[in-house]
């Protein structure tokens, strides 16, 4: 799974897709920052207003404070005009995103490399699993899916459909079955087949955190008996349209599931793309990929410099 900033998705360059997907985020940020430019050194009132505007654009208080400090320390000889402000925002956003822009790498040995995927219902979790599987196939890895979200028959059925479309095997059971048993069977079969990557869907309900924690702990125990290094990744899928609520989900799932990395979906068509920056600054977890559409090719690792320019609305 390697970064692709110029790859062809639906005939356009990936960068073009990003600019389109983040348009509402750009417009919201531009509207919030409108009229806040000024002289060579921004006044305290200006800095307060800029910080408030960045928070209102879902970049989060930590990132907003960091950008404010950068502006306070800078000197803008030509005046802090719109271009200079966008450039300063883009530079700091890139600095925030660069450490967390880390694609998933398949390193587990003996095979399979096991990835647990978690996320609340409606976050795009099952579709994201399919998109990740497709990315790994593009990188010439063999993939198997495990339908560990036995709480919902619809989740099992949807994952079966995707497995069929992708031409990958799937291990599944009946609704209400034991997820740990399914994961056990999946690891055994993936090991026997020499499969590179096993992607496991898991339940996303948060109504009973203790129940979910117990279920995931059981899955981990089963995995540990078969391969002490597994799971190699615990990936949380987040819906960007939830804005700051997505940050609360990170906190909860870090506690109950030991999240090791994030995938941010549904960045297209939302004015809340700034939450990508807020998540990076607040938690520092790897953000493995971002999704900007519904097709199988619309999930990709990201270039932090490009995404920073996109969010800030800097020219291509």
**What sequence of helices (H) and strands (E) makes up the elements?**
HHHHHEHEHEHEHEHEHEEH
Radius of gyration, whole Å: 21 Å
Number of helices: 12
- The CA-CA distance between the termini, in Å, is 25 Å
Strand content: 5-15%
Largest sheet geometry? 8 strands, mixed
Query: Helix/strand/pairing class, anyone?
Result: alpha/beta
Helix content: 40-55%
Spell out the blueprint of helices and strands.
Blueprint: H1 14-21, H2 23-33, H3 44-56, H4 61-73, H5 82-97, E1 113-118, H6 125-138, E2 143-147, H7 153-166, E3 170-171, H8 179-193, E4 197-201, H9 209-226, E5 233-239, H10 245-257, E6 261-265, H11 275-283, E7 287-291, E8 299-300, H12 304-312
């Amino acid at each position: 799974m390697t970064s692709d900033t110029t790859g062809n998705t639906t005939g356009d360059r990936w960068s073009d897709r990003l600019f389109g997907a983040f348009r509402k985020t750009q417009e919201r940020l531009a509207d919030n920052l409108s009229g806040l430019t000024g002289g060579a050194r921004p006044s305290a009132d200006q800095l307060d207003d800029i910080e408030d505007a960045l928070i209102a654009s879902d970049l989060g208080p930590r990132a907003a404070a960091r950008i404010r400090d950068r502006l306070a320390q800078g000197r803008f000889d030509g005046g802090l005009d719109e271009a200079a402000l966008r450039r300063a925002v883009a530079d700091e956003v890139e600095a925030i995103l660069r450490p967390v822009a880390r694609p998933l790498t398949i390193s587990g040995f003996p095979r399979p490399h096991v990835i647990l995927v978690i996320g609340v219902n409606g976050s795009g979790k099952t579709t994201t699993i399919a998109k990740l599987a497709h990315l790994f196939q593009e990188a010439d890895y063999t993939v198997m899916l495990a339908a560990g979200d036995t709480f919902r028959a619809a989740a099992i059925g949807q994952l079966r459909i995707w497995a069929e479309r992708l031409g990958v095997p799937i291990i599944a059971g009946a609704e209400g079955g034991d997820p740990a048993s399914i994961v056990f069977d999946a690891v055994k079969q993936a090991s026997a087949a020499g499969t590179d990557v096993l992607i496991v869907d898991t339940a996303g309900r948060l109504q009973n955190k203790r129940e979910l924690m117990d279920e995931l702990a059981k899955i981990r125990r089963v995995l540990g008996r078969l391969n002490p290094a597994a799971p190699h990744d615990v990936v949380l899928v987040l819906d960007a349209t939830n804005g700051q609520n997505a940050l609360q989900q990170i906190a909860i799932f870090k506690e109950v599931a030991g999240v090791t990395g994030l995938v941010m979906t549904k960045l297209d068509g939302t004015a809340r793309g700034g939450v990508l920056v807020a998540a990076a600054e607040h938690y520092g977890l790897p953000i493995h990929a971002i999704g900007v559409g519904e097709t199988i090719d619309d999930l990709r690792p990201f270039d932090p410099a490009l995404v920073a320019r996109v969010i800030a609305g800097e020219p291509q």
